[in-house]
## 1
Amino acid sequence: MSHYVECQTEFHDPQALVAALTECGFDESQIEVHQEAVPLYGYRGDVRPQRAHIVIRRQHVGPAANDVGWQRLLDGTYRAWISEYDARHRFALHMQNRIKQEYAYQVIRRQARTSGRTVTRERLPSGEIEVTIGGYR
Amino acid sequence: MLRGKHVKIIIAADGTCTVDAVNFTGPSCQTATGEITAALGGQIDHEHLKPEARGGEQSRRVSGGGLACSFLRHLPPQTKPMLHPNPAGVPTGASRNRNKKLCSTSLHYMRTPP
């Protein structure tokens, strides 16, 4: 018997988000994690009104890029701040989706291992990630 | 390939996940998928109950508890499940095909001017 759920992913685990960003090519040293939200800066060094708890500074994003950040909201989820410029370049939809995909894997893996289960991962030719969790009694 | 109870998750390129509990018996399948959807923070758009889940729901109706109910409690507050059980409770082929839960969570990317 099989039973399945289809769902999308919402960022609410900062450690998993950082892990996802490192899987997407950023070094952990390039990712700032703050308890309190800090300002984001534009490509000219100008302070933006947006603030974020998880930040990748513009020099790590690319030429003429702005800071990219994720702000923790009152409900515990994270909202991404991505400039229109960066959404057309390094943080295009493909990258945004890949972050979501890697984040989903990270939270699944953490949840499964916390429960003492085994986790295997395989990237399929379609671009999907297949995760198998075993160890159920 | 695992032969016993296991959960298989396909994470699509857009971050959408399909969570499939395989070889479970009874409403424990809902617990297994519920653990994953809770971790993902997924909002359920559709819920398609399998025969075991209907059994759980039936027991919930009788006892006021049950695993189908506890699964829903695992979901975040913004979750708005829409249940589509087989009203007659008959495990027909068509109803088996509907024994799936669909959920989605909106992810808002706020963009700023360059």
Note: The CA atoms of residues 38 and 51 of chain A lie 5 Å apart.
## 2
Amino acid sequence: MAEAAPAEEFIELTGGRVHLLRGGTGEPVLFLHAAGGAGVWHPFHQALADAGFEVLAPDHPGFGKSDEFTEVDAIDDLVYHYLDVMDALGVARPHVVGASFGGWIAAELAVHSPHRIGSLTLLSAAGLRIPEHPVTDIFLLPPAKLIATLYHDPPAVPLTASPDAPPDLDAVIAAYRESTSLARFSWVPYLSDPKLERRLPRISAPTLVVAPSDDRLIPVEHARRYAARIPGARYAEVPDCGHAMYFERPAEFAAEVTAFLSAHPLAAAESGASR
Amino acid sequence: MKFSFFHLMPYPYLPDDFDTAYDSTALTYPNANFDPALGSALYARYLDELEYADQLGFDGIAVNEHHQSAYGLMPSPNLMAAALTRRTSRARIMVLGNAIGIRGNPLRVAEEIAMLDLMSGGRIDSGFVRGIGWEYFGHSINPVKSRSRFNEAHDLIIKAWTSPELFSWYGDNYEYRYVNLWPRPLQQPHPPIYIPGAGSTETMKFCAERKYTYMSVYAPTRIVRRWFDGYRQAAADLGYVPDPERIAFSVPIYVADTDERAHAEGRRVIEWLYHKGLKQTPQMVTPPGYMSPGSLRGVLSSGMRGLGVSTYEDLLASGQAVVGSPASVADRLGTLYAELGGFGQLIGLFAIGPSTHEQVMRSTELFATEVMPVLRPLGVKAEASA
């Protein structure tokens, strides 16, 4: 087993500092976190590291310990931001794994620069506009309803402090900052890029699309649409699981992802034998 | 002291189960609950009340903008102002204000205010507001851009009003290759500007730099005092003492012939405003980016409570409503005048809840005839400091 604690570092870019967690050794995996996952090194990440990958998990601009990057205020800016991050990290063609909001960024990165993606894994990715299957408005949900929306089987014990506890002002401000950063990219069009779907055929990397079976935030139809539009994509569903994904079913998500990554080594991708 | 009559134009007919069945009067409150026949009658009644205030000698009559809400039925304040230009002749017509943070095309606001100014013979006061939280959901405008959009729209509108020649505009939010306002406003260089403040030092400075009227919104006296002091300090930093008229205190007011009657009738009206009309979830109040993290920290640590938890007695005691006989109301407003360090404009919200037309007319008349004369000498610019 690899070291349990990831290394914490900062990448200096022109517009500010990017906070990054790095763990494991092996082929690089760029992990793009969900709206709620900045700075989290979860057993899921450790499982990827343990499976022989070097997991690189940066915080998005305005999330976690990364700077604001005020000029990064649209999804295309995020694509250029992550090309800069990849260049700064010296990874030419990593595996890219994105969850939810991070999955949207991963998909945009892959349509913009297909040649920079060794393999692509989308975990209940946002990004598509499917009016008949709208994404729940997370900005309007009170915290209790948000938990009920994120989990197939919502935890009995709240993840946050009890409602009776005095509010932690710093935590409230930090959450508001991340919510603001998310809104910067996704208020309207809501968590989507209407042009993304028709660009998906540009993706050339081997792709895995994973959906939790009971996603009350991003309907499963979104994952199915990704799988249908990305050439050769594999589709998998994790049963009895909500949008919280690896927070609810860590072992199942880790198993799906590590099996896929292991089956698509980057060297093979380089040689053109990716699928 | 100058006095204005501010109409919120509420839709007061909420269902009996409103408190338990709905989060708010706004955004998601089903419009099946709106009865068009009642709404049509309300508009006629409300315009009558504004016109009556003009006849009674109020210095101003005021309207505002709200969207998708029973709290206020004026998605377009400029339409109401237009109606008032033809049926009033003395009072200033105050649009408090156009929500330029959520407007798609701010040039349209410059055009409409210029039209209103011409139609009213130069009686328009032009307020600018950002638009409140739920309206960023309702009109699909990114609240993260709220401040930037507000500032840019303001700058564009002022330039459009005052530029004697065609210009081009290239900003973060708006681009116009041809700005060439027809018609231009009657008042020169442009109608007076009103800006509501809710504690932001940036807004205080913005108003003080331009000598705009800074007006308060619902808050306890001790907090409004801090805002007014902040505005006065911002002016002092710029080397001047603001004319009292540049500070406007706005407060719900209900007057009846006796204290007993005023409280018997006013309680329901004030409670409607704070407990029903303004009911909303925290997510609706503060969508992401609507406040800076620093401002949010300030609000959360200021001890301000949610409006819905304050009792009628709390609201009276904290200066968030003034109710009573003419003598009691004059006395209470005199006290608030002193506690707030003075102000030169009183913006009274006289029509704010389920009061009847007769009650509003009586309250307004009593205020005009018996309260205004008492308070009139207050808040006038001292000759010495002119």
Note: The interface with chain A takes residues 136-137, 140-144, 281-284, 286-289, 291, 293, 296-297, 300-301 of chain B (CB under 8 Å).
